[in-house]
Write a structure and sequence with these properties.
Elements (H helix, E strand, L loop, with lengths): L3 H13 L7 E6 L5 E3 L2 H8 L4 E7 L2 E6 L4 E5 L4 E7 L8 E7 L3 E7 L5 E5 L3 H4 L13 H9 L5 H6 L9 H10 L13 H20 L44 E5 L2 E5 L20
Parallel strand pairs: 2-9
Antiparallel strand pairs: 1-7, 3-4, 4-5, 5-9, 6-8, 7-8, 10-11
Helix pairs in contact: 1-7, 4-7, 6-7
The chain binds a DNA duplex (14 and 14 nucleotides) through helix 6.
Length: about 290
DNA sequence: GTCTATGTTTGCGG
DNA sequence: TCCGCAAACATAGA
């Protein structure tokens, strides 16, 4: 569920709520598999008396640094959320991990689908080191994108979703960026011209920045939907051009938006703006050409 | 009952 | 070795 803009929104909300500076008194775990490492017993033992120094983000990971060393990573996967409540609040269904602070407040990890994971580690490199560049970092230049695309022969969309290639893009922002750059998701990565790579680079940054400005994308009202801390919804949905807009007119050319499947993922394109015509080695299965 | 879902990992076969 | 694909994780909503 949450992609880079959503995780960033959560990190900012936690900071705005004054989480940095709080000291943990302990954690209670109600679904063991949410704790990726160490063991639940060790996790609960080690987390006591840890003081939060900072809350940040890397890719789709929320990164919590403790004073005097140690870090906690949280990955929300499909349906994870964070609730900041007072310790007296009744525990809701799906609140699988409860972190208690000295001041009587609690941070609760809520996750209906139970795919989310929490890590406690001395050195985050083993996990975060596998991530590709931050798309909004100056290190991520149009050339880095172009060369990275060129030295592989992958379908463009699955490559953008690969967190080891670039960190933080998910299904929503990838579809939006490809539409913005007018690139078909089934193009082969090494078939992109430098100009196309530049357009894609600009598009990625544009849709991510807009997503953050709008505090993330919330879709329906379902339980698996994005909510930031304090149950606030993002308002980026109206800014989406193709994602879950099947049949609606393309904002550029008015052709009806199509839904296709690419790399097992639901994918939304404008069949007129994003075409495969003229690219050898690309296949257009299931959608029109 | 059926299909779909904003994510990631693993194992298989080409 | 690289790549795409299917399945697995687990639950809710349409």
């Amino acid at each position: 569920m949450p992609e880079l803009p959503e995780v960033e929104t959560i990190a900012r909300d936690l900071n705005a709520a004054g989480v940095a500076g709080k000291t943990l008194t302990g954690a209670r775990v109600y679904w063991d598999r949410t704790i990726a490492e160490p063991s639940v017993t060790e996790f609960c033992r080690l987390i006591k008396k840890k003081k939060i120094a900072a809350v940040g983000r890397r890719g789709k990971f929320l990164v919590i640094d403790f004073t005097g060393g140690g870090h906690m990573l949280m990955h929300l996967r499909m349906s994870g959320r964070l609730h900041l409540v007072s310790s007296g609040a009744e525990r809701l269904p799906h609140e699988h991990v409860v972190f208690a602070f000295e001041d009587g407040s609690e941070l609760r990890f809520h996750d209906t689908r139970k795919f989310g994971r929490v890590y406690l580690m001395a050195d985050v490199e083993r996990v975060l080191g596998r991530l590709g560049p931050e798309p909004l970092d100056p290190m991520f230049t149009p050339r880095v994108l172009f060369e990275g695309m060129r030295k592989r022969s992958r379908l463009v969309k699955p490559l953008l979703l690969d967190q080891g290639f670039v960190a933080g893009l998910g299904n929503i922002y990838t579809d939006e960026a490809l539409w913005e750059a007018r690139i078909h998701p089934r193009r082969l990565s090494d078939s992109l011209s430098q100009k196309e790579a530049e357009a894609l680079h600009a598009a990625i940054r544009k849709v991510l920045r807009r997503g953050m400005k709008n505090l993330g994308t919330s879709l329906g009202t379902g339980k698996a939907n994005f909510y930031s801390v304090g149950r606030r919804r993002g308002r980026n949905r109206d800014a989406l051009k193709v994602f879950r807009r099947t049949g609606e007119p393309c904002a550029r050319c008015a052709a009806p938006v199509q839904r296709i499947i690419v790399g097992q993922r639901s994918t939304h394109i404008c069949p007129k703006c994003q075409t495969l015509k003229g690219f050898k080695g690309s296949r257009d299965r299931g959608s029109e050409g």
